[in-house]
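Supplementary Data S3. Sequence and structure tokens for construct A.
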Amino acid sequence: MTLLAVAAAVSLALVLGALWALYGRLGDRTEGFILAAGGGALMFSAVLELIVPAQQFISLTATGLTLMIGAGTFSLIDYLIDKRWGDEGGVGFLAAATLDGVPENLALGVALIGAGFWDVAGLAGAIFLSNVPEGASGAKGMRAIGWPRGRILAIWLGTALFLVVAAVAGNLLFRNAPQEYLVLMRVFAGGAIIAALATEIFPKAYRRDHQMAGIATALGLLAALVLIHSMAD
């Protein structure tokens, strides 16, 4: 029950972002600022909750190799998506958001194995913060090329459902896996998330909000730090 609630919450953030873009007002600078803030929070949580703890179970060499495989896998698939659809078309927006979301939600599902909500609250909160602007940015781009609102909203609802399934799959498929495999899965997902931030989130945030994107990134990281610190207390 906790798994479904957490997965649904972070995935439906995409829909909230899409609703904001379709029926609210979302200027370029606001879009860039929240993209950067969400990215900063996610970067901090990915490193602190997925990558750093691996050192307790596997070697630094294994951590580094797995991290690079995760980043390389994401980068290759992202390259193929850009080559096929480009980074400005509606399908490209959707493919990129799905590609970003799969490793995040898989990692969330794996992290919830034997854990409660508060054990992964930092990671879940960071994914939520990054999903809202990503859904908003994608829906805004689709609307700009003439897609109707109803179609756009249905697509993002479907994407959110797909990512819930990804989280559940990660949890169920690896529930009985040895601890070392779970750690490798988290590090792989962490590498993919870092690559997604570097290639998708931060460049787009800078194009929208220029130097303020750096301030927003630091604020997002600080928000994740405060959240994790408050849970530790």
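Construct B, processed identically:
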Amino acid sequence: MRIKQSNNYGWERPEIMHKYSLMWCSRLKFIANEHKFLNNMLKDKIFSFAESHLIPKGEKLMEQLDELQKEAEMLVHKIELHRNGLRILFDGIDNQEDWNYKHEHRKLLIKMHEFDSKNNFLKKEIFRTITEALKHHKQKRLLN
């Protein structure tokens, strides 16, 4: 009788890896919509005030948002390719291909965590900048 060693993450089970891949793709597609919203919000709240001192910062944030969007698209592509290769784990035979696939899954997990961190940091910066722009605009209106 062969005893299968397990790890804490359940990566030895193809069903769980498939579930993670689906969740990652769904999350990245949601983030893509969120980026469109944030981009529009930056345009509406920062660039509508032509004299705003925050325009350079807004432009920089929009560039970072575009870069993050490209990274998200690349990750979706990698994850979809990864998910399509899942069938190699269903043969029931442990070999080097299985180990490579699981290793690739772990690398994608790390990339998703890094992407989430960058995305959350950028969103916070965008909201801080928009809040500052709104306060600045409100102060100018009160002075007039």
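Residues 1-6 have pLDDT under 50 and may be disordered. The radius of gyration is 22 Å.
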